[in-house]
């Protein structure tokens, strides 16, 4: 898998902050957590990711360039451009302002952002690379809600089949969003399971924009802006999310993703009225679909 992605510690790389920048979280506020390889808010001025380089295990924060994109120049200057130079993500910083950074201190479980001297890409888009067997990041994210919305830019390197591959989640029976060979499945409680129609399926080796919303009247899902199944709103007394953590790239050590993730934005609210605007913003930036 080529997605073109210590313990010493170095300081953050310099960041170039363009005047008049407006990010998606400036337009659509209230995210519970937000992870990306781009800058999402004008008020966010810290690093996007923390990287461990393979040559000596030194770590450094990597920020964004003047366009708000991952600072690839600083990243490769730190990690190196040789065929054996790899950079591993130890922290994917939460840009929501809630401090829900996703981390992993175990070296063998850290996903890549530099792979063999090149910035990790999936389908031509900068992405954090997950190996499908052990890579994951974990965040302390407290969610206690029935209304829920998520927007993810992700893709798998092969048909997921019955062995679904998780974008994020923490509980295999209550909270996850995962890609299968024929659909996207998101569960936000014991019921309902929000599942796309079979004819709106996952395309292996292709980056896609996934949106899942449990809203005021129904649970809807979308792949690249196209709606799938509609499920009834979860109004059961036992329903809704009650979680204190979330894993990126797995469901608490299960259903590991083999592929790439560029962005995940999670809301503990109904974002139905903002969906098309958010999808347009995401697609305009990453150029996922026409």
Account of the 3D structure:
- It is a single chain.
- The chain is mostly beta strands.
- It has a single domain (24-286), classed as Jelly Rolls.
- The protein is built from three helices and 23 strands.
- The protein has helices at residues 24-27, 72-79, 275-286, and strands spanning 33-36, 49-53, 59-62, 87-92, 102-103, 112-115, 118-119, 121-122, 125-126, 128-131, 137-139, 143-145, 148-156, 165-171, 175-179, 184-187, 193-195, 208-214, 218-223, 226-232, 241-243, 246-248, 258-267.
- The strands form five sheets. Strands 1, 10, 13, 18, 19, 20 and 23 form a seven-stranded antiparallel beta sheet that branches. Strands 2, 3, 4, 5, 6 and 7 form a six-stranded antiparallel beta sheet that branches.
- The longest helix is centred in the C-terminal third of the chain and has 12 residues, at 275-286.
- The two termini are 26 Å apart.
Describe the largest sheet. Answer: 7 strands, antiparallel
Q: Outline the low-pLDDT stretches.
A: 1-14
Secondary structure class reads mainly beta
Radius of gyration: 18 Å
- Helical residue percent band: under 10%
Mean pLDDT: 88
């Amino acid at each position: 898998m080529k997605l073109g992605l210590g313990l010493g510690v170095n300081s953050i790389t310099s960041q170039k902050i363009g005047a008049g920048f407006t990010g998606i979280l400036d337009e659509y506020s209230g995210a519970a957590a937000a992870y990306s390889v781009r800058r999402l808010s004008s008020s966010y001025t810290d690093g996007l990711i923390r990287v461990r380089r393979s040559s000596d295990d030194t770590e450094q924060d990597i920020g964004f360039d003047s366009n708000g994109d991952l600072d690839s120049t600083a990243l490769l200057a730190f990690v190196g451009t040789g065929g054996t130079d790899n950079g591993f993500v130890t922290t994917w910083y939460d840009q929501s302002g809630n401090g829900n950074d996703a981390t992993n201190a175990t070296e063998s479980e850290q996903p890549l952002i530099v792979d063999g001297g090149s910035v990790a890409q999936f389908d031509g888009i900068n992405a954090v690379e997950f190996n499908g067997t052990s890579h994951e990041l974990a965040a302390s994210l407290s969610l206690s809600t029935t209304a829920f919305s998520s927007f993810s830019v992700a893709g798998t390197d092969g048909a997921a089949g019955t062995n679904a591959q998780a974008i994020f989640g923490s509980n295999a029976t209550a909270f996850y969003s995962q890609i299968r060979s024929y659909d996207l499945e998101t569960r936000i409680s014991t019921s309902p399971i929000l599942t796309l129609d079979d004819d709106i399926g996952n395309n292996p080796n292709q980056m896609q924009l996934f949106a899942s919303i449990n809203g005021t009247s129904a649970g809807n899902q979308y792949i690249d802006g196209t709606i799938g199944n509609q499920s009834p709103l979860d109004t059961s007394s036992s329903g809704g999310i009650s979680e204190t953590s979330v894993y990126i790239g797995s469901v608490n050590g299960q259903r590991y993703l083999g592929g790439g993730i560029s962005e995940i934005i999670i809301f503990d609210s109904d974002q139905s009225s903002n969906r098309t605007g958010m999808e347009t913003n995401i697609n305009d930036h990453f150029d996922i679909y026409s």
